[in-house]
Fold this sequence. Notes:
Structural class: alpha+beta
Distance between the termini: 26 Å
Amino acid sequence: MGDNWTTHAKFFATKGWQVHAVDGRNHGRSPHHNVHDYDAMAADLEGYISEHNLENVVLLGHSMGGKTVMNFAVRKPQLVDAVIVVDIAPKFYPVHHEAYISAMKRVDFTAAKSRRDIEAVLSQTLTSPGIIQFFMKSLHWKTKEELAWRFNLDVLERELSNVGEA
């Protein structure tokens, strides 16, 4: 289940909706892939809907997820009852996440023994406490002794230009 929309998902569930909160590829708990573009993410969404036999689907997507659900709705309108898009439009956006990826890649997980150590590294280049905390939520214990990002940073960095596409 995607973490960033948990509060909203719980609210919709209390209203009787069946909620599936899904992280996009290379994010959160979703699988890592070598391709990161909207066609692939729309195909992932189609696979998820098919695998779970979902009908009367209302898709909510934020930012990159918003572009994903728009792409999917245009390709497979028969599978979608409605689309809710948050904080993004169907247009090109200049790439602007390089500093975030660079800051996360600066973390040496063999040296960082705690979340506090990682937060200190991020704070050297990122000035927004909210952004830092957002990224901190994407840490997990890879082993009993080593933290890691849930993001597939190498692929996200390489494929970053695809995220700005319309």
